[in-house]
Design goal:
By secondary structure, the chain is an all-alpha fold. α1 (3-32) runs antiparallel to α2 and α10 runs antiparallel to α17 (374-404). The chain is 77% helix and 0% strand. It is globular and about 65 Å long.
Length: 405
């Protein structure tokens, strides 16, 4: 390993240790002084806002520059990565079905005022995604519409592929400049995570979660199974190598940050930097990471499946194998469109509940329970989704290197 690689790995490990210190410090402050801990949330809000601000620009210029400067005959290796994303999401929903039947969960329903409106069907979800693709580029950048950003960046990159070398160099220099800004922002991750942990524990605590420990156990158990068993199996099948060094590194350096920011979009710059340290192909990860933040949603598929089957078990509805498989497919497809729906995976639960004829009022109560446990559910879901983006991107790049060697 070269001195540059050693220095890069050392910096990455140092940052993880600093983040762990920030987590512990945030927990201690929340315990000793909830008032000061709530005020410390400002650091977390600033950190997440900075990441969200720089991420759309980073994706746009990096993708456009990579495609514009792509050499003739060079391959971006995207097809196998998209295949891994889809297989991983379907495997997540099937795992959630299995866990839900092994450890059935029942809920307590009460009347509630559901003021939010879920999508009416998968067609509406897919329609939203299609309209996001043709969104105005300025609007896409302002609103963090990564499907639209990708579409415009790819189009601009293709258009500039035959431009002069000077023009391509400008885009490359802008891309490197934005990447430097990202590296500067990420250096403040320990302080930002400290603020997020302190404010979350001070304001919410975990009292609201006690009544839903069984439900959380099934959700988190399914996510850990995917992260530590299913994903490594997929990586081993793809690369033929021991998957755990890669998987654990991604969970440590991407999953932990995503867990506390609770935003796949905000974690895009973190994942980009991790891919750079792993020395992956920039033409590949510059596209696969933002794409994964929109369609690689194994955690969302688990949330949709587990909460839907909890409602099914509560109401005493019988589910056969064929219906369970259909639910897995619906959850996987819905999860891929979760980024295009306000409220994300939770607002897609009524869509899945509709398979079993569950009334809208009941389905929305399940959504309410989802928001109650969101402190852990959403954090774990985001951590799994975001870290898996890097895992599958790296697996595809490693498989390609092995094939070419």
């Amino acid at each position: 390993m070269s001195q540059t690689q050693l220095a890069s790995v050392s910096r990455g490990n140092s940052l993880v240790l600093q983040i762990l210190v920030g987590i512990l410090a945030g927990g201690v402050l929340a315990y000793l002084s909830p008032e000061w801990a709530a005020n410390a949330g400002l650091f977390g809000q600033l950190f997440v806002s900075a990441l969200k601000a720089v991420a759309p620009i980073l994706v746009f210029v990096l993708v456009a520059a990579s495609i514009a400067n792509q050499k003739q005959g060079q391959r971006a290796n995207m097809r196998p990565i998209i295949g891994l994303y889809l297989v991983g999401t379907l495997a997540a929903s099937l795992t959630a079905v299995t866990m839900s039947f092994l450890f059935p969960t029942t809920l307590e329903f009460a009347t509630t005022d559901a003021s939010i409106t879920p999508p009416e069907g998968i067609g509406q979800v897919l329609s939203t995604l299609l309209f996001n693709i043709v969104d105005n580029p300025v609007s896409a950048l302002m609103n963090g519409n990564y499907i639209g950003i990708l579409a415009w960046a790819i189009g601009l990159g293709i258009a500039l592929h035959h431009a002069s070398n000077e023009t391509k160099r400008v885009f490359s220099d802008v891309s490197e400049g934005v990447s430097m800004i990202v590296r500067f922002v990420i250096r403040f991750a320990p302080l930002g995570i400290f603020g997020l942990v302190a404010s979350t524990l001070a304001k919410s605590g975990f009292d609201a979660l006690v009544g839903y420990m069984h439900l959380l156990g099934v959700l988190l158990g399914s996510m850990f199974t995917i992260a530590l068993v299913v994903n490594p199996a997929i990586v081993y099948f793809k690369t033929g190598q021991n998957p755990y060094p890669l998987v654990l590194k991604c969970l440590r350096e991407s999953g932990i940050t995503a867990f506390f920011t609770r935003s796949s979009a905000a974690n895009i710059p973190v994942n980009m930097q991790l891919c750079r340290r792993l020395e992956l192909d920039e033409d590949t990860y510059s596209v696969s990471i933002p794409l994964g933040a929109t369609i690689n949603m194994g955690g969302a598929a688990i949330t949709i499946t587990v909460l839907t089957l909890a409602a099914v078990h509560t109401l005493g509805i019988d589910v056969d194998i064929a219906t369970a498989v259909l639910l897995s497919i619906v959850a996987a497809v819905s999860a891929c469109g979760a980024s295009g729906v306000a409220g994300g995976s939770l607002l897609l639960i009524p869509l899945a509940c509709n398979l079993f004829g569950i009334p809208q009022e009941i389905a929305m109560q399940v959504v309410g329970i989802g928001f109650t446990i969101g402190v852990l559910q959403d954090s774990a879901e985001t951590g799994l989704n975001s870290s898996t983006d890097v895992v599958f991107t790296a697996a595809a790049c490693m498989a390609e290197e092995r094939k070419n060697s």
